[in-house]
Design brief:
single chain, alpha/beta, Rossmann fold, Helicase, Ruva Protein, domain 3, two-stranded parallel sheet, 58% helix
Length: 467
């Protein structure tokens, strides 16, 4: 068959409409793009809704029993018609050959302050090495020798401080920790099964974020099936940013086009800057814009400001204030407003995490013996005496805070003084646990977020303790 790029998907869909199908499809690359493209395939392969009820089986690759899936693939259907096996996050194409690629993604997400995504890639790397998170916590991944690292993961031990990886693994809730992989060579079993032949009406659709193209199964699909390459450079270079913006623009235009809308060119950069490269968020915000303009055919800069503008930022700021002040009722009310307005839970978590990190940094600075900080310090003294002394020799720390008016920083110092460092660290752990549950469980988002606020504001957690 063929290998298709993102721009070539319409060509593939046209072939399917004309009856040219395959028994095995592999989609790899950006997670949302893969799922969206897979849904398009399924809609064409099983056009009738009633057929999907019995003809579509979704399998979670993180929990997949390879033998069971293979047995189902080899079984003739009791009822006539196609049977599609849709496997998301398959590990069939993982090997030590891509372990460094997965590690690099974990590092990128950690550098971008996205611990949930960093942890996800870190767990994938452990799965490649067939080692569990608990084993790496006990062995301390940050202190592995160069030879031990190379043996486990197949590439040289990275330089620098790896304590962030150790900390992420240590914070995994015990009930959410996935088991280590036990079937990294199962791709050969799949290859043999397809070479021997499976029932003609059975179709396998595999989704993966990364693949080892040297795998026998990959080569088989490339020759006899269909591969869709949806990879997007997730880096922070100028080239990566251009590619990300291009994909985001395509999603924006395709989404609003479905509502019969267009958007002013000067509004696009503002949209991209505020939403970022989060394909799910791009689609959600684009849909809100299309609905907001009503009968108008063109979305303007003013529309973007109204829907994705300062109002949401102010609400997020108010949520930070409610959490910091321990006002649970206000916090729950603001949280409900944000979620009802379509703000994604991950965006809310990111805002809370950044605020707590700033508070922790400030609280750590307040522990210094010189210059000494006191809660009674008036603003003029804070601005003219305390701040200049604090900045001396500490630019790499203080530059993270010196971005606004000194009075705003003064109020941040007053807030931080109400807490202990341990309380703020516990708060960050609660946020990390909530992020892991949002991405790794089917629990309702609102329930997870409400539970987080209760945990953050419970006595002796984020609330200051009496010394």
């Amino acid at each position: 068959m063929s290998l298709y790029k993102r721009q070539e998907i319409p060509t593939l869909l046209g072939k399917i409409k004309n009856g040219e199908t395959s028994q095995i499809y592999l989609l790899f690359g950006e997670r949302y793009l893969c799922r969206n493209a897979a849904q398009e395939l399924i809609d064409l392969l099983l056009p009738e809704e009633k057929d999907r009820a019995t003809g579509l089986l979704h399998i979670d690759g993180d929990k997949e029993d390879y033998n069971r899936t293979l047995n189902l693939l080899k079984t003739f259907n009791l009822f006539s018609g196609r049977k599609i096996f849709w496997v998301t996050d398959t590990k069939l194409f993982y090997s030590k050959g891509i372990a460094q690629n997965v590690w690099d993604k974990a590092c990128e997400k950690n550098n971008l302050d996205e611990p949930g995504q960093a942890l996800r890639y870190l767990l994938q790397m452990l799965s490649i090495a067939s080692v569990s998170p608990q084993e790496m916590v006990a062995e301390n991944i940050a202190s592995l020798s160069a030879s031990r690292w190379k043996t486990l993961f197949g590439f040289s031990r990275p330089q620098g401080d790896l304590s962030w990886a150790r900390d992420l693994l240590a914070d995994i809730p015990a009930d959410a920790s996935p088991a280590k992989s036990d079937g990294m060579d199962s791709s050969t079993m799949y290859t043999l099964a397809f070479e021997a032949g499976i029932p003609r009406e059975n179709i396998l659709i595999l989704l993966a974020e990364a693949v080892d193209k040297r795998k026998r199964l990959y080569k088989y699909i490339k020759e006899h099936g269909v591969i869709i390459d949806l990879a997007v450079d997730a880096g922070i270079s100028a080239a990566a940013k251009r590619e990300q913006d291009k994909v985001a623009k395509e999603l924006l235009h395709s989404t609003i086009a479905g509502y019969g809308k267009d958007i002013e060119s000067q509004a696009i950069p503002v949209f991209l800057e505020r939403v970022g490269f989060h394909p799910v968020a791009v689609v959600m915000e684009a849909e809100k814009l299309a609905l907001y303009v009503g009968d108008r055919a063109v979305i303007t800069r003013e529309d973007v400001d109204a829907v994705i503008g300062r109002t949401r930022e102010e609400a997020l700021f108010e949520l930070n204030e409610a959490v910091t002040s321990g006002r649970l009722d206000d916090g729950l009310l603001i949280l409900d407003h944000l979620q009802s307005s379509g703000v994604h839970g991950l965006a809310i978590l990111s805002t809370l995490r950044n605020h707590l990190k700033k508070l922790l940094l400030v609280r750590s600075l307040q522990e210094l013996k010189f210059p000494a900080y006191t809660k009674s310090l008036p603003f003029p003294v804070f601005q003219k005496s305390y701040l200049p002394k604090l900045q001396e020799g500490r630019e790499e720390w203080t530059n993270l805070l010196w971005k606004g008016h000194p009075y705003g920083l003064y109020m941040l110092f007053r807030q931080a003084a109400r807490f202990h460092c341990e309380d703020l660290q516990e708060g960050l752990k609660e946020i990390l646990a909530a992020e892991y549950r949002l991405k790794g469980t089917s629990v309702d988002t609102r329930l997870i977020m409400d539970s987080l606020l209760f945990n953050l504001m419970r006595p002796k957690s984020l609330e200051a303790r009496v010394s």
